[in-house]
């Protein structure tokens, strides 16, 4: 007489197993999409107080550029500047503040490019998003920057540039063409050679 051993039947997955399986599948699917690095940093809660872009560069062909930037701001010395004054010149705008580590690193390169291109009529302006006049002045003394900066602690300039500068993405550098339109943007640390090439390209345009 042959003994028939019962064939073991695997238990049905419990609720916990089903949930874990679903979570794993969701993670696999999420891994197929490239993360939004700015969004990730914004949600990180690491208290560094700035969102560092990845240094990505966006260039815009002349025929694809949006309308000229329209903004008015007050420099730390009290001078009011309107972007309409920049027509005919290439203009570089750099969003910064003193405690931002990438801002400190790129400051000497920005100043060097300011000196290199000032005889070509290229204008450089900083847009400081949080510092007092004393703090901004101390930064300028430390890093030797001589181009002026706007006091944008109220966020008015960034609001005017909202289509070009992501919220809290510091530093960000914009190169405006001779018509005041954004020709290029760097999110994060501006590499000197890259920014120089972008400025040179804008200068070469009619």
From TrEMBL:
Q: Which GO terms describe its biological process?
A: cytochrome complex assembly
Q: PROSITE patterns, per this entry?
A: TAT, THIOREDOXIN_2
The residues forming the signal peptide are: 1-33
One Pfam entry name: AhpC-TSA
Question: Where does this protein come from, organism-wise?
Answer: Pseudarthrobacter oxydans
Q: Which domain of life is it from?
A: Bacteria
User: What is one cellular component GO term in this UniProt entry?
Assistant: cell envelope
Question: Keyword set for this entry?
Answer: Cytochrome c-type biogenesis, Disulfide bond, Isomerase, Redox-active center, Signal, Signal-anchor, Transmembrane
User: Where is it located?
Assistant: Cell envelope
Which GO-annotated molecular functions does the record name?
Answer: antioxidant activity; isomerase activity; oxidoreductase activity
Read off the InterPro entries from this record: AhpC/TSA, TAT_signal, Thioredoxin-like_sf, Thioredoxin_domain, Thioredoxin_ResA/DsbE_sf
Name-wise, this protein is Thiol-disulfide isomerase/thioredoxin
Q: Give every Thioredoxin domain span.
A: 28-204
């Amino acid at each position: 007489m042959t003994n028939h051993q019962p064939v073991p039947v695997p238990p049905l997955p419990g609720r916990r197993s089903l949930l874990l399986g679903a979570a794993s599948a969701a993670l696999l699917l999420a891994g197929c999409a490239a993360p939004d690095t700015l969004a990730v940093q914004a949600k990180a809660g690491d208290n560094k107080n700035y969102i560092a872009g990845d240094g990505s560069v966006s260039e815009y062909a002349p025929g694809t550029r949006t309308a000229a930037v329209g903004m008015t701001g007050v420099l730390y010395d009290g001078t009011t500047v309107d972007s309409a004054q920049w027509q005919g010149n290439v203009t570089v705008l750099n969003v910064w503040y003193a405690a931002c580590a990438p801002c400190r690193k790129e400051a000497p390169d920005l100043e060097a490019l300011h000196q290199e291109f000032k005889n070509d009529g290229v204008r450089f302006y900083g847009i400081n998003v949080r510092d007092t006049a004393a703090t901004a002045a101390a930064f300028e003394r430390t890093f030797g920057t001589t181009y002026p900066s706007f006091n944008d602690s109220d966020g008015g300039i960034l609001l005017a540039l909202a289509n070009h500068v992501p919220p809290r993405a510091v530093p960000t550098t914009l190169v405006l063409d001779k018509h005041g339109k954004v020709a290029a943007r760097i999110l994060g640390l501006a590499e000197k050679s890259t920014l120089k090439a972008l400025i040179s390209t804008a200068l070469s345009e009619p």
